[in-house]
Protein: Trichome birefringence-like N-terminal domain-containing protein
Organism: Nepenthes gracilis
Amino acid sequence: MKAPPPQSSTPLRKARLSPYLFTFLAFIIFVALLYGEDFSCTLSQHLQLDPSSDDHHRPGHSVSESEKKRHRVLPFAIGRTEEGCDIFSGKWVRDESTRPLYRESDCPYIHPQLTCQEHGRPEKDYQFWRWQPHACSLPSFNATLMLEALRGKRMLFVGDSLNRGQFVSLVCLLQSVIPEHGKSMEASYDSLTVFRVKEYNTTIEFYWAPFLLESNADNAVIHKISDRIVRKGSINKHGKYWKGADIVVFNTYLWWMTGLKMKILKGSFEDEEKEIVEPTTEDAYRMAMKSMLRWVQRNMDLKRTRVFFTSMSPTHSKSIDWGGDQEGNCYNETTMIEDPTYWGSDSRKSVMKVINDVFSKSKVPISFLNITQLSSYRRDAHTSIYKKQWGPLSPEQLANPKSYADCVHWCMPGVQDTWNELLFTKLFYP
Ligand SMILES: *[C@@H]1O[C@H](CO)[C@@H](O)[C@H](O)[C@H]1NC(C)=O
Ligand SMILES: *[C@@H]1O[C@H](CO)[C@@H](O)[C@H](O)[C@H]1NC(C)=O
Ligand SMILES: *[C@@H]1O[C@H](CO)[C@@H](O)[C@H](O)[C@H]1NC(C)=O
Ligand SMILES: *[C@@H]1O[C@H](CO)[C@@H](O)[C@H](O)[C@H]1NC(C)=O
């Protein structure tokens, strides 16, 4: 270790270093020595966009470093997914023996907007599909294992109604092994819903923040707003409620898709003269992604916690996207799209590119749940007209059911259980 800097009467004066500068340099060297190990750790961890791509595109990485990384165990990990297996690349297979993972009527926490059977859906075909990666098989979801891992911990979903769906799906997957009196679901304040497991001292929570940043759609109940405004640099407004979580799962997408330019507020919502800029959707979304990464970097200890980001949940509002008729949408669809190259709208592609750009340049090790492609085949799995409606339907609507079909949200059980199986895999077998 370097000795403390000598006083100004030493030969160092000749090098024209002021004592303060010298002290400063010595301190830097000291810190670098002390944390050198950690520095290299941080640098060699990065986003697991594609497990097979490993460190190849990171310059300055020696073989031994990526070797070391392979052996470094992520928090919660108990095993590994086979080398080179992209669990998001695969196909749906019919499996009536193991699907669905629970019955709609057995999970009391599903919102009435997602209980399709209760609301008259005439068939259950959408419930019997299992996701099969091409290069390996997913481990079976084990509720006991997950609860044990979450003992004394807090897991938090942050985002929009699709992330709320994934939260509820996870609760449904876990709740069957918890006795009746040992669990509760409550809205603790406007934006936060908490599922509590008494015996395990565990909470699984959902925080409503459809843009992650502060916006004029932040009211968890009343947020039907077409003129959407998001405030730049405001992630801490919500982020202060996320601190201390052991696992965080973010999503944000649909609310950015206004079809118009996004309105980004530079000052505060209280300002009388609001300074608003209107970047492209992609640039606005990029800003949010960067804010999220910065928040994670500053607030999560990634040596003992995990952070996930779920990609865009696809919608099926236009049959012409998959070669169907002009007027149609997901209504009356009971089979999935067979074309393995099907992707859907271009805006999804450009947003995926933004995610890819931002994450691949970042050193923050966020696990990416790339559910967009696998869900895009599932035009059959939306709630369509089989849900509790927010208000009474008009005679015109009733005469034309597809006019009010919901082709955004997913019936439960269904597709979102698969998202959680993938989350389970990434958490325990990264
Ligand atoms: C699930 O995990 C628990 C706890 O780790 C273990 O005891 C049990 O055998 C597992 N169940 C299955 C079916 O693998
Ligand atoms: C329950 O978990 C919290 C962290 O979520 C912890 O602070 C607390 O000490 C735990 N309580 C018990 C009784 O284990
Ligand atoms: C629903 O689909 C079936 C079979 O694809 C078709 O026969 C029927 O006419 C459709 N119903 C409506 C109301 O579009
Ligand atoms: C997600 O998966 C799709 C399809 O496999 C792929 O095109 C896309 O690049 C992936 N996105 C990222 C960010 O890895």
About this structure: The radius of gyration is 24 Å. Confidence is low (pLDDT under 50) at residues 1-63. The CA atoms of residues 241 and 280 lie 29 Å apart.
